[in-house]
Design brief:
Shape: globular
Strand order of the largest sheet: 1-3-2
Number of strands: 3
Largest sheet: 3 strands, mixed
Number of domains: 1
Helix content: 40-55%
Structural class: mainly alpha
Distance between the termini: 27 Å
Low-confidence stretches: none
């Protein structure tokens, strides 16, 4: 899974990994992260167990890449005269990519955003079609990272 997401984002994961703090309660969402490498997940929330828990841990770790990914999106938007990144785009990329990484490793996994209906909510729902059209083919090796991100920006 780590190879999958680092290939997708073309960014390096810390050599020592991310420390994941496990607590009976983390917050209303069952897991969270902050810049500075703080990752917390709940041991009691049913939505952070099994393969959903695995997805959540990688999801929260991927938030450490929010700033470099946003910077890349801003640069591509200017270079390709595409609309600027919309609020929530980096989070939607994480939802999608973390779920695909787990699906690639765990048979029958249904992604967190699919399972909990998050693609039907704003702002995530506004990105789903573009992710299916541009990001999924990239994850499958059919385009470049920049092509996928420019397509997503324009969608």
């Amino acid at each position: 899974m780590l190879a999958y997401i680092t290939r997708a984002y073309q960014l390096e994961w810390p050599k020592g990994g991310h420390l994941v703090n496990v607590s009976g309660y983390s917050n209303w969402a069952g897991a969270y992260s902050t810049s500075g490498d703080l990752i917390v997940t709940s041991s009691l929330d049913p939505d952070t167990t099994g393969s959903l828990g695995l997805e959540s841990i990688f999801h929260e770790g991927m938030h450490q890449w929010d700033q470099p990914m946003l910077a890349r999106l801003v640069r591509l938007s200017k270079e390709h005269q595409a609309p600027p990144p919309r609020n929530g785009i980096t989070h939607a990329l994480i939802w999608y990519t973390a779920a695909e990484a787990v699906k690639n490793s765990v048979r029958g996994h249904v992604g967190y955003a699919d399972r909990l209906g998050m693609w039907k909510q704003n702002p995530n729902g506004g990105f789903k079609a573009g992710l299916d059209t541009y990001w999924k083919p990239y994850l499958d090796g059919k385009s470049t990272l920049d092509e996928a991100l420019v397509g997503l920006l324009k969608s």
